[in-house]
């Protein structure tokens, strides 16, 4: 269950960030980059996220260089998030992006429409 929750946290962060990550190869690779964020997002979410979380998030955001890549990865991650069936507080996700100093290209909302 813990592994499932950690994977989902990475997925949700990616859905929220709506990024493509061509530098690391795509959806699954982006999840690996974001796994260090899972304990922060799924836990009490106090303090600052781990430095590896911020590094992974920045790397993924840097790869979001076209609308097509963002849409493709958004859809992939939304499908995985729904499949995982775990819910994460969007406010915790916003805290991660703010604390890491990462500007995201869309509103923080797990229900974002990936087609736009």
UniProtKB/TrEMBL annotation:
| Alphabetical list of CDD domains matching this protein | nsLTP1
Which PROSITE patterns does the annotation name?
PROKAR_LIPOPROTEIN
GO biological process terms, alphabetically, are: lipid transport
Residue span(s) of domain Bifunctional inhibitor/plant lipid transfer protein/seed storage helical: 27-114
The reply on keyword Nucleotide-binding is no
Q: Which stretch is the leader sequence? A: 1-20
Query: Mind telling me what this protein is named?
Result: Non-specific lipid-transfer protein
Task: Show the Gene3D superfamilies listed in the entry.
Answer: Plant lipid-transfer and hydrophobic proteins (1.10.110.10)
Provide the function of this protein. Answer: Plant non-specific lipid-transfer proteins transfer phospholipids as well as galactolipids across membranes. May play a role in wax or cutin deposition in the cell walls of expanding epidermal cells and certain secretory tissues.
MF GO annotations: lipid binding
- Organism this protein belongs to: Rosa chinensis (China rose)
Family membership: Belongs to the plant LTP family.
Show the Pfam families listed in the entry: Tryp_alpha_amyl (PF00234)
Q: Which PANTHER family match?
A: NON-SPECIFIC LIPID-TRANSFER PROTEIN 2-RELATED
InterPro entries documented for this protein: Bifun_inhib/LTP/seed_sf (IPR036312), Bifunc_inhib/LTP/seed_store (IPR016140), Plant_nsLTP (IPR000528)
Keyword terms of this UniProt record: Disulfide bond, Lipid-binding, Signal, Transport
